[in-house]
Write a structure and sequence with these properties.
Elements: H1 10-21, E1 29-32, H2 42-57, E2 61-66, H3 76-89, E3 96-98, H4 103-115, E4 119-122, H5 126-131, H6 150-161, E5 171-174, E6 189-193, E7 207-209, H7 211-222, E8 226-230, H8 237-246, E9 254-258, E10 262-263, H9 270-278, H10 293-299, H11 303-312, E11 321-322, H12 324-338, E12 340-342, E13 344-345, E14 348-353, E15 367-372, E16 382-387, E17 390-394, E18 414-417, E19 421-430, E20 436-443, E21 461-462, E22 465-466, E23 471-478, E24 503-511, E25 523-526, E26 530-534, E27 541-546, H13 551-558
Parallel strand pairs: 1-2, 2-3, 8-9, 10-11, 12-25, 14-20, 18-21, 23-27
Antiparallel strand pairs: 4-5, 5-6, 6-7, 13-24, 14-17, 15-16, 17-22, 18-19, 19-20, 23-24, 25-26, 26-27
Bound molecules: adenosine-5'-triphosphate and magnesium ion (MG).
Adenosine-5'-triphosphate binds near residues 43, 46 and 261.
Amino acid sequence: MSEPGVPNNFITEAVHRDNAAGTYDGRVQTRFPPEPNGFLHVGHAKAIVVDFGTAKDFDGTCMLRLDDTNPETEEEAFVSSIVEDIEWLGYEPTQIRHASDYFDTLHDWAVQLIEKGLAYVDDQDGETISATRGSFGTPGTDSPFRNRRVEENLDLFARMRAGEFPDGSRVLRAKIDMAHENMQLRDPVMYRIRNITHHRTGEAWSIYPTYDWAHGQSDAIEGVTHSICTLEFESHRPLYDWFLEQLEVASPPRQYEFARLELTHTITSKRRLAKLVTDGVVEGWDDPRMPTIRGLRRRGYPAAAIRAFCREVGTTRTNSRKAIEELESYVRRELNATAQRRMAVTRPLKLVLEDWPTDAEGKPLVEWFEVVNNPENPADGTRQVPFTGELWIEQDDFKEVPPPKYFRLSPGREVRLRGAYLVTAREVVKDANGRVVEVRCSFDPDSRGGTPADGRKVKSTMHWVSAQHALEATVALYDRLFTTEAPGERTGEPLDDLNPESRELLTSAKVEPALGDAAPGEVVQFERLGYFATDDRTPMLFHRTVGLRDEWASIQKRG
Ligand code: ATP
Ligand code: MG
């Protein structure tokens, strides 16, 4: 899929402006700063495309920075999954760093602020600190420790660092303005005491920087020029700028905030996604119904389609929910170009051809038909598909009593078996419950390849699989994981809107032999049924990626 030139949005405009003014000597450096506390999801994909994509568009660089300032919740295991997911999406960080790489510098800078009288050790507990911050429109009140002497602050901070005090007993706060109209500037906490082992720095630290103290400074240390994040950090920007100003950082980074990506029928909260996994609602972080990168990947979403969607839906400052059908239409467009066509029968019904010839040994004749792998891409070539007198067709493709406008197979009706022969239903065989278990048909030997000698027309072409050659398969059909467009809108709890029927497993599917050679993870089109991804671990398990119908087009038409 084509990736068009530099997109037009407020971020690329800012870069153009900076480049024209020579602000960073034309340098463009961004970063993607996830917290290693979970798997990445489709919202992160958007951030990755914006961060790495903007750098790429301007021949700049983009680092991956693991924001490991919360030793309680972080695990090294998530780091490797984050790196893999970024790579799968098609990007490569110029470097991988951790906020903890900068703990020494951050500490020294904090000492500088203390020396300048711009930070102090507060002995109040967390509850008191939040209670005295005031609220929007109401000023906060000064801590009784706010005017400690510099020497005392230096001494206490050194002892905090040395592990002399219990968790939560003291914090280091910036000394800005407890009456500031922006709450973020009311003496925010820079360090808290946590006598805990960190997954990278071990026992070295008893104090850990807050995200607010680490973030802008880490950008500055790395030389980030355009620090891109989501809108919830907008009110933090003046604080980040204040820190950099007090530290007299030359050519400081500037932060740009864009609206988070939210999709209909989807949640992106890591906490709630984790609950789906622990409650067993889904089978894991990579369940094909999950909006994680791993889930989308296992479902068969191509990375190119996710990238194109993230780029082309735009990067704005207005929060909105994008239709999941729009993402699916990018997936379908990409797969239409790349996926090979195969025949598979998901709910099989036996079709028997009366008078089917036998071969020299008296066994039913096997004919091999050459079919095109992908009409959109001649380079994919052709393959041979076996055809015999006993076939599988879809149960849906036969009706004993056809409803109006039903043009598929019914008694006396002639249809085309794709690329093979025209057949006419003659009689049915039923089981003890009166269910049709077999349709017996005649066939026109002069329609070999699916084109009758006399050029007569039939209204329907159906897919089929030779019974003798069919492979057994399981097909997983997926519906939305949440029934409502905005999960949780009614009750505040998204999990109240879970769709109890989000997966249907069809365990007796019959597929053509070529599918036995499908590579793990390969996505193919099952003719007439949709796109299906071969599972990456379980052989002969196929996940429906998307159906064939472009629902996004109909949604747009409806306006
Ligand atoms: P979550 O709410 O899922 O825990 P988070 O924002 O806490 O997400 P981080 O690991 O801190 O997760 O996010 C790393 C980067 O990804 C941040 O820059 C964040 O702004 C961005 N990001 C997270 N979710 C989205 C989203 N839905 N849309 C766009 N960007 C996102
Ligand atoms: Mg976060």
